[in-house]
Amino acid sequence: MAVPWEGPASHAAVTPWPAQAVAAEMLDGVKVYGRGVTTVRALDGVTARFFAGQLTAVMGPSGSGKSTLLHCLAGLDRLTSGRALLAGTDLGSLDDRSMTLLRREQVGFIFQAYNLVPTLSAEENIVLPLRLARRKPDREWVQALAALLGIADRLGHRPSELSGGQQQRVATARALVTRPRLVFADEPTGNLDSSSATRLLGQLRAAVDDFHQSVVVVTHDPRVAEYADRALFLADGQVAYTMNEPTSEAVLDLLAGLSRPRPRHAR
Amino acid sequence: MWRLSLKGAAGHRLRYAMTALAVMMGVAFIAGALVLTGTIGRTFDNLYNQVYASTDVVVRASQPFEAGLSYTGKRAQIDASVARTVRAVPGVAAVSSTIEGYAQLVGRDGKPVGNPAAGPPALGESWGDVASLSPLRILPGGHPPSADNEVAIDKHSATVGRLAVGDRVTVLTKLAPATYTVSGIVTWAGQDSPLGASITVFTPAAAARVLGTPGKVDQVNVQALPGTNRAELVQRVRAALAAPGLEVVTGQAVTREGQDAVHRALGFFNVALLVFALISLFVGSFLIFNTFSMVVAQRQRELALLRALGASRPQVLGTVLGESVLIGTVASAAGLAAGTGLAVGLRAGLAALGTDIPSNGLVLTGTTVVAAIGTGVVVTVASALLPAWRASMVPPLAVMQGAASEARQPPRRRALAGAAMTMAGAASIGMGLAAPVPGPLLWAGAGAAALFVGVAALGPLLARPFARVAGAPLAHAGVPGALARENTVGNPARTSATAAALMVGVALVTSMTIVASSTRASADHAIASTMRADYVVTAGGATVNSGFSPALASSLSRLREVSDVTGAKLGTARVDGATVGVVALSPLPASRLVDLDVSAGSLAALSPTGIAVSARAAAEAKVGIGSRLPVTFTAVGTRALTVEAIYRARAAAGDYVISTSAARALLPGSLDALVYVGLAPGVPPAVGRAAVERVLAAYPNSTLMDQAQFKAEQSRQVGQLLNLVYALLALALLIALMGIANTLSLSVHQRTRELGMLRSVGMTRAQVRSMVNLEALLISLFGAAEGLVLGLALGWALVAALASSGLDLVSVPVAQLLVVTAVATLAGVLASRRPSQRAARLDVLAAVAQE
Questions:
Q1: Interfacial A residues in 57-96 facing B (CB < 8 Å)
Q2: What is the pLDDT of residue B540?
Q3: pLDDT digits (tens, 9 = 90+) for B18-28
Q4: According to the model, what pLDDT value does residue B410 have?
């Protein structure tokens, strides 16, 4: 299969990892916010693996800790205790600068609120991570990404001139442009209409299948499960369940079960 | 709604902190000036009341016009015999004659006591035996001067000059320097000295000789018998004297005159300080406007919610205005307190300079409180008016939308209004400077304010292309530079409003620098083109109320090494209803020492009844050679002088020159402010200078300068004045920099999400910091550039307007202005230190945290 990034050697393509290679890992992760009576244990001993070349969905009801898991795994936040490893690097050992460089080189982000720089054009937004790293953008690669995401004709426009779906696709292109080992998406379909959401999920799937990218999607949208290789369910800051080859029906059933108030204080 | 204002102001107190600080500083300046002048005024009022407490009637010479507080405009003296006549009038209890004049004490260190060049005057007075009619009291251990070689001196001078009873002391007067024995130390109205002035007290006979004219006194003070009607006594004294040229008034009238004169002088001082205070507040108003604009934009959703919940448009307007009232009041009250403290500091500063204001407690009048707080509140509310109006226009529907950013493209209306305001401002400045309108300074000042606001309104149109061009190099220097440029270009309204404050500051500094530089260039040119003398002797900075006895010039003229000497006396007179300056020179030597560029007649042959007139004044008064020009002097009244020369070089001698011999009668008792010296042919400068310096040794207040030194001295004086103006403008510049820091802080706050996202995709802290710094650089550069251009225009206009006062050369000090611009820009970048650090420390999660 011809993959677009296997072009000039200078672009150091990501070597597809052996099946079941671990892209990111959390070992007994605990994250505590606040203190005293307002203490919240957002993560309460999470151990989880995210495999390379897979699309993993992290699901769970609001407040289950799934966003916190993503933040700690992606180097945006630090665990209170436990370890988070990204591409084999223990994030706890990094200072702010190394963490920033690691994010820049190894991680791509897609947010619910798109988060584009309003003063920059779509193309400038896409190549921003490369320019921050003072790397010269490969025009062919940018064009290929834009074509894949269907925004090739919108590259000169500013975010305010784009629809929500288009903005999210620009953000997706920005997440993929550095050929990161891992792409984290936090509720990427949260602000999108149904057809835009479907389209975006297809494109994330394509990134995994065609570009051998590893993608972690945090969501409570059951449709995402259809596109995932694996689903991880969180409840009360703990991993409640994992499911391989999930379907939305199975997910819906499971979520219904997780959302039901559990008798925590059994007699 | 008031409750909401309270909560709003409290909730955004950090964002409003800078606003409050700016208002506070401006108000403190106002309050400080008012409290200080109020205190000085009250002090003088009390002193005058005390000095004339027992003086019921005063007899003195009438004067044709009021010439102000200077010796050159002194009243004529009256016959000493008047005192005897007055004593005989029924109802008179006691009389005391006084003589006052110039007497400079020389301290133990051989230097003049006090700071005669810039400080309070050096007074000589006659001792009066009637204690109730004199403010002078001898301290124990001494006695009043009883012989003509004895003097009493004030306690302050005794301390400063390290002089004690029994010491020999040199006193400089209008006669040759002489040595006296200190017979006693005096206090003046209970004070060590009258506000730092030095007093030398002579016997009446000695005073008449060294301060005035033998047989003459300045005024006769009269104390009435108890129960005498003052008005009737005035009538009786008037009848008894029945001589022309005499004036009989009550002591109260004299007290009021003195108090009024002090209040007038303080009024000028006050206006000068208040102008700078208002400039600071004006600069602050840009900061206030900007803060409210940004806070309102950030709170659009909240305001829309209020509207959706049923708040009316006026209620929303009221809420925001209420916040401004609250901030204005709190900040102004704090400013009033700070200003009172400032007045204490200023008083200490003045004391250090030699003007000691007795501490009768600070005077905080109701007017001061109302003026200071009122100005602060009005400025705050007026600056918040437009943002508050915009807030009230937020539609309730905006609840549904995210916070909209500020308007990106300036509406055409704004551009038109800005252009109209700019032109109106320029026209008003033109009127003030060039046209004969009442209150020209008000026209010019209001015009300048309008000009600044107009240019600030046009700013967004200019900011975009400017940032694009000036930021071009940044765009190639990596993402931080490119983003900084985009932020500046993308928010032209914010960029220009932030830069506006700096613009005002830089424009004022630039124009003042140009005026100063032109003054220097003009003075240099005037000296170079007119001064033919080898040396000039000066008495330091001030030329009024200090100078030399004419004995100095005669001593110098007796030197073999010297061929020509002339003193220059400065006098005040009235020509054609206008008060003018008159210079007195010795015609023959002056014609060789000072080249006045005589176009008709001859300066060398100027007679004691003649006058030389500048070509401009001659044209104005329509006089030519041989015409009679009526000139009124305070001492002798009106004299018709014959125009005997017409000259073109006004810068050297003003519009009117009379001869020294004429001055003996017309400007009695006046000193030589300057002495010009020309060496005899063939005398080497070193030899000549040494000879002159030997004579000057007896005059410790003299400084000998050659042409280059004289130029440098003039230049130094201009520089001193410029530094004072810079210092007074410093507050305005500080507030401008606070404005930049505040806008960047608010902008960083506003862009929390964007900054967090940039961090999440790999922007390092250093990159964030440099992005904010570069944005500050572009904004400051824009403000400085605008200010430079406006300042050049204003400076040129000012110099053009001052051309008639001798500013005939326009000089633009390029290097100095570049330094001003660079310093302002760098200061702007420094101001961004805190905001940029805050931006760099920002939590990355802030971007990704969902609402």
A1: 67, 71, 74, 76-77, 96
A2: 67
A3: 889 989 999 99
A4: 53
B555 within domain boundaries: yes
**What tokens were used for B624?**
């030519």
The A residues from 150 to 179 touching B (CB cutoff 8 Å) are: 174
In a domain, B375, yes or no: yes
Q: What is the CA radius of gyration of chain A?
A: 19
Contact B634, B64 (CB under 8 A): yes
Please tell me the total count of domains within chain B. Answer: 4
Q: Which residues of B602-613 are buried (b: 16+ CB within 10 A; e: fewer)?
A: ebeebeeebbbb
**Based on the domain organization, do B558 and B682 belong to the same domain?**
yes
ipTM of the shown complex: 0.72
Same domain? For B109 and B19 the reply is no
The Cα–Cα gap between B851 and B844 comes to 15
Token pair recorded at residue B357: 């204001």
Q: How far is B743 from chain A (nearest CA, A)?
A: 18
Is residue B846 scored above 50 in pLDDT? yes
User: Is there a contact between B687 and B561 (Cβ–Cβ < 8 Å)?
Assistant: yes
B436: its two tokens: 């004969």
Residue % of chain B over a pLDDT of 70: 93
Which chain A residues touch B757 with a CB distance below 8 Å? Answer: 109, 111, 115-117
Q: Is A27 helix (H, G, I), strand (E, B) or coil?
A: strand
Domain match, B49 and B63 both: no
pLDDT at A221 over 90: no
The burial of A39, by beta-carbon neighbours within 10 Å (0-12 exposed, 13-18 middle, 19 or more buried), is given as exposed
Q: Which two tokens stand for residue A134?
A: 């003072």
Instruction: List, as one string, the DSSP characters of B23-60.
Output: HHHHHHHHHHHHHHHHHHHHHHHHHHHHHTTT--EEEE
For residue B51, give Cα distances in angstroms to B29, B41, B87, B96.
33, 15, 21, 13
**In chain A, what are the domains?**
53-76+104-259 (3.40.50.300)
Q: What is the residue range of B690's domain?
A: 549-698
Contact A188, A210 (CB under 8 A): no
Q: Do B632 and B574 form a contact (C-beta atoms < 8 A)?
A: yes
Please indicate, yes or no, if residue B390 is contained in any of the structural domains.
yes
Same domain, B132 and B272: no
Report helix, strand or coil for A241. Answer: strand
User: Looking at beta carbons, which residues of chain A come within 8 Å of B478?
Assistant: 131, 134
Domain assignment present for B349 = yes
pLDDT at B128 over 80: yes
What confidence tens digit (pLDDT) does each residue in B387-406 have? 998 888 877 766 655 444 44
Mean pLDDT of the B22-43 span: 88
Specify the DSSP class assigned to residue B112.
B
Q: Which residues of B touch A119 (CB under 8 A)?
A: 483, 486-487, 489-490
Confidence of residue B414 (pLDDT cuts 50, 70, 90): confident
Interface test with A, best of B844, B848, B851 (most A CBs within 10 A): B848
- Please report residues of A whose CB lies closer than 8 A to that of B758: 117, 128, 132
Chain mean pLDDT for chain B: 86
